[in-house]
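SUBJECT: A protein chain and its fold
Encoding: whole-number codes for local backbone shapes
RECORD BEGINS BELOW THIS LINE
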Amino acid sequence: MEPPDFSEQEVFDQEPVEGDPASRPPPRPRPPRDRPGPPPEPGAGFWASGARIGWIAGLVLALSAFMDWYAGKSAEGPTLAVIGWHTGALGKLVFFIGLIVVALTVLRELGVELPATVPESLVVIGLGSLATIFVLVRLISIPDTFAGTSGRGVGIWISLLAGLAVIAAGLLRAAEEL
């Protein structure tokens, strides 16, 4: 038995049979695949927490000026506490440094940025260092006015930690900028 001879012409002349794959219309071209989304931000993840840590630490630093920095007992018996605001100019400067750190974050979120020659991370590190030095001065040297309150209150320790956290936030922001 001899195999049938199919020439190309015979194949194309045949009527398409329903259900035959050859009788279906040609498939539609697929739409182009969507382009992948933008690459992830370089400061994503843990390193992006610099801004969050910065404004929280700035807020805590500002509020810590209204916490007790010195505590002790008076001659009459009740416990005395002196808030950072009442310790002189350094206590007030700590408050305003905290406000400036928060203001920098708010302004950046509103679209206002510092000039390119002044990196924001450097400003935050400088403010944190300044606040930490001010708090350390008050931690080591109690003003003579408050001699009866020789103990340190919890507020001065919170101020110290907040100042160090502002420095850490500035360092994290610097890492984001790289």
The first helix runs from residue 8 to 13. The chain has five helices and three strands.
